[in-house]
Amino acid sequence: MTPLFDLPLQRIRANGIELAARIGGEGPPMLLLHGHPQTHVIWHRMWPTLTRHRTCVAVDLRGYGDSAKPPASADHAAHSKRVMARDMAELMRGLGHEHYDVLAHDRGARVAHRLALDHAGSVNRMMLLDIAPTLDMYEGTNRAFAQAYFHWFWLIQPAPLPETMIERDGEFYIRSIMGGRPGGLAHFADQALAEYARCAQLPGWATGICEDYRASATIDLEHDRAGRKSGERVRAPLRVLWGERGAVGRNFDVIGLWSAVADSVSGKALPSAHYLPEEVPDAVLAEAAGFFGWEG
């Protein structure tokens, strides 16, 4: 299969904006979503195996990478997970995929969670990497979590404070955030780091990431609380994986919290910190093969 970096970057219109994606492979469709402060490139080490078994759509979230970067809105609705999930639903539908699997990390996993709620009929099975539900993480924040995830509380400060500081040196921001986790920058390929750094220099990138987090601390919580009150749950089979050296598993009951909002949940910790697709790609692939149903 063609390596991820060798595939052309496609720009596809969905939900009124342009999304950047790389598409490859064969077999049933799978949507791949990345986290902060990265792009779809996080899947490059897993790509050769994934694309032997699935037609993979690796896409940059709005506000990230080479996807469109809508302006900020007063209520942050333009970057709500509901809108970002609609991006993905319309993207996949436009590519001819009415039903698909989802594999998502970090911020992309929060989009995937909302996708599985708002577009439940489209998601066959879903694997989420290193998150607990957003509402529970905010409501259960303690000092240890706040210190490890300080950016959750810094990026939501009113504009233009965080944007201005990030824009002074986007590559420094990338290297500081990613390098500040256990293991530092040693986990990341030079080509991937260069791509993350390039995208951090793009106009609107700082606004996009800040608005993503501001939405999660405001309008997304409103949607989550309303949904829980109405009884909404993830109906698709859900597998959750987290890093045994990361902050999520240390501070939250990952399986318990997901079991409270989803019908069928399984999962485990892997020997990594936060960036599972790049730190332990083979372990994630082994879990994916068992959960999504392929051999080798």
Automatic annotation (TrEMBL):
Keywords: Hydrolase
Gene Ontology MF annotations: haloacetate dehalogenase activity
Documented EC number(s): 3.8.1.3
AB hydrolase-1 domain ranges (all copies): 28-174
Superkingdom per UniProt: Bacteria
InterPro entries recorded: AB_hydrolase_1 (IPR000073), AB_hydrolase_fold (IPR029058)
Hydrolase in keyword set: yes
Major enzyme class: hydrolase
Hydrolase as UniProt keyword: yes
Name of the protein: Epoxide hydrolase
Organism whose genome encodes this protein: Bordetella ansorpii
Organism placement in taxonomy: Bacteria, Pseudomonadati, Pseudomonadota, Betaproteobacteria, Burkholderiales
